[in-house]
């Protein structure tokens, strides 16, 4: 029931956000510009280098590759069935790309680092959120030692990736929000279709 409610809320919120963006709703535009200007005023060479590195390390394709390592570690307890992993991580990336084509929103003007493709939703945010959600869900059911620390690291990674997209002017804030909502919806759908093999363990 919780998964169903999560799916309905996330999907509804994403659709509403997408419609508002498509109609260039004034509140969305003003909020995006305000946040973009905030980060633009923070620009300095050291931060730029740092966030460029973050963006490169957590490129969506690389995140998919990293997640294969995550899946390899979990192969022993078969927590996530192979179909679930493929549909959630790889299928999610393809689905997100199709969504980008539907909305075909242009990127912010004058980014600090040239980026190609459409802006909504943020691919970096979507993919890192998907992998982080998979990791946190597994941690919550594995009782691995210091699992809260690993959860904190996952959240921190997501936060840094989001900051990198905003700081580098690669996305508007609404793109980031769209990536988060789409990731939550997609993850919840896949949990329902391909439920993990939940068996609490001490590792």
Q: What would you say this structure looks like, in words?
A:
The protein is mostly helical. It has one domain. It has helices spanning 2-22, 26-40, 45-57, 60-74, 82-103, 123-142, 147-167, 173-193. Residues 82-191 form the Phosphatidic acid phosphatase type 2/haloperoxidase domain. The chain crosses the membrane at residues 7-29, 49-73, 85-103, 115-137, 149-170, 176-194. It comes from Liquorilactobacillus vini DSM 20605. This is Phosphatidic acid phosphatase type 2/haloperoxidase domain-containing protein. Keywords: Membrane, Transmembrane, Transmembrane helix.
Q: Helix-strand pattern, N to C?
A: HHHHHHHH
Low-confidence runs (pLDDT<50, min 5 residues)?
199-203
Radius of gyration: 17 Å
Strand content bin: under 5%
Count the E strands: 0
Structural class: mainly alpha
What is the overall number of helices? 8
Arithmetic mean of pLDDT: 86
Shape: globular
Q: How many domains in all?
A: 1
Helix fraction bin: over 70%
What is the terminal separation in angstroms? 29 Å
